[in-house]
Amino acid sequence: MRHPVSICTAVLAAVLSTALVVSPAFAEGEDAAAAAAAAEAKVLANANNPLANMVAFNIQNYYYSSLYGTDDSSNTAWLRYVQPFGRWLLRASLPISTVPVPNSPDPESGLGDFNAFLAYLISDPSSPVQFGVGPLIAAPTATDDVLGSDTWQAGAAAVYFNAKSRRVQFGGLVTYQTSFSGDGEDVSVAALQPFYMFQLGKGTYLRGAPLWAFDLENDTYSVPFGLGIGQVIKNENTVYNIFIEPQWTILHKGVGQPEFTVFAGLNIQFLGK
Question: What CATH number belongs to 47-270?
Answer without folding.
Answer: 2.40.160.40
